[in-house]
Specification:
- Helix 1 crosses helix 7.
- The chain folds into 2 domains: 157 residues, no CATH class; 38 residues.
- It is elongated and about 90 Å long.
- It has a two-stranded antiparallel sheet.
- Helix content is 54%, strand content 4%.
- By secondary structure, the protein is mainly alpha-helical.
Length: 202
């Protein structure tokens, strides 16, 4: 599980489910769950691009963390809006967050329209934002503690996924190292053999 949910969060999510029903599937099973660590493929890319080629790239897990940071910003903006205004904002729609005409932007609760880390990131609310409602993304789901609590209180099971396996990563790196070492040794061997052949002309 990506994060532990405390008793307060679980109680909040339990009340949310009672009021709003079961969460959208993209909350429990987001197309791209945000991992605490890079997966094996991303770690191999990092090793190759940073250690061998010498430059950095942006990983899917990093973009997911940006998405979750956006969700915290949105939730905070909605909370401030509801404190200041008699007409409460109970639901959040993606279009209201990315255009200057959105209430949160017009009221300066968001300084700028939200910039999504992925083209298909879309933000919505699940439940009543004046109560226990939360923000989620159709691609990256919701914050890890909310997702964990919702899984615990609903019994819904996330789809099996490929786990980040340190053993697999180290085995793969070892194999690559052995292959590269063998190639270097072969190159040195043939380099030494060439002068020997030149010493015996026909």
């Amino acid at each position: 599980m990506p994060a532990q949910a405390d008793a307060t969060t679980e109680n909040q999510m339990r009340e949310l489910v009672k009021a709003a029903g079961l969460p959208p599937d993209s909350v429990i099973n987001p197309p791209e769950a945000v991992a605490a660590k890079l997966n094996v493929r991303e770690r191999l890319h990092r090793f190759w691009r940073e250690k061998i080629l010498g430059f950095r790239i942006t990983y899917a897990s990093a973009r997911g963390k940006v998405c979750h940071a956006n969700q915290r910003v949105i939730a905070g903006a909605v909370e401030m809006f509801n404190v200041d205004n008699g007409s409460k904002m109970k639901t959040v729609h993606h279009a209201d967050l990315i255009t200057p005409s959105g209430e949160l932007i017009k009221g300066s609760y968001l300084k700028y329209p939200i910039t999504t880390p992925e083209p298909d990131c879309e933000y919505y609310s699940y439940g009543d934002m004046t109560d226990n409602g939360i923000i989620y993304c159709t691609r990256h789901g919701t914050l890890a503690e909310f997702r964990t609590a919702l899984i615990n209180v609903t019994g819904l099971q996330p789809h099996p996924s490929i786990l980040d396996n340190d053993f697999d990563f180290h085995i793969t790196i070892t194999v690559i190292f052995v292959l590269l070492s063998a190639m270097v040794l072969l190159a040195l061997f043939f380099k030494k053999q060439k002068p020997v052949a030149d010493d015996h002309p026909e």
